[in-house]
Structure prediction request, 269 residues.
Amino acid sequence: MNKIGVFDSGIGGLTVLKELISALPDENIIYFGDGKRTPYGSKSKETIELFALQSMKFLTDKGAKAIVIACNTVSSNALDAIRKVYSLPIIEVISTTARLAAKQSKNMHIGVIGTKATVESASYEKALLEIDPAISVYQKSCPLFVPLAEEGQEWWNDDITKAVAGKYFKYFEGKDIDTLILGCTHYPLLKNVIQQTIGENVKLVDSAYITAIDTKDVLAEKGMLNSSAVKGKLEVYTSDSIERFMPMCNAILSMGNIKIEKSDIEECR
Prediction:
């Protein structure tokens, strides 16, 4: 039980994984991306809970001492179900990201973009209003962003992606937001298009860096940090084809010689 487990519906959680490796270089980390069943955001709460519990079992069976849910959809829809079954430290992305957004916003007009399931859960709205009831929260689901991110680098700055962003972001016209939460770990891959479309005067807040720092703080508080000075090992698993997952993994992590294995997550029950 000496590994940090990290999971997401696909490649989006790799943005969190990259920050975790940077913040916790001595820790052994195991990542699972459920590319076979992505996207989660259009699925029912019951299905999201099932998928999340299967990922939890997979990672804990492989020795995870703590779990980072690198997925906004799971964090907003399955956290209670997970905590009913597991007592190990679980770090989710909603609360820490909300705190950062509230701290950065000057006019307390905050936008949130996410999957349909995340937006409908109103998890970010609840978290932000708990911090300050005076915050105005404007939410917009952007379901096409996940498949565009998953499709590969050539789509991350494509004109089609720009057109999709332009259509979605019409919702924010006249809302006077000064901060936009990227409420899906896939969305930072489209950050250039998102920033260009929403405007340079709007600060983008993504969960990757702050979640990595929160993970370090939680493990330190519980005395669970790896005391070894040896560089940590990385294990990466996908439920999708390795050939499809490998180039995305290399592009996001900027690391060579990453060993990726395939796992049939549906066997984890």
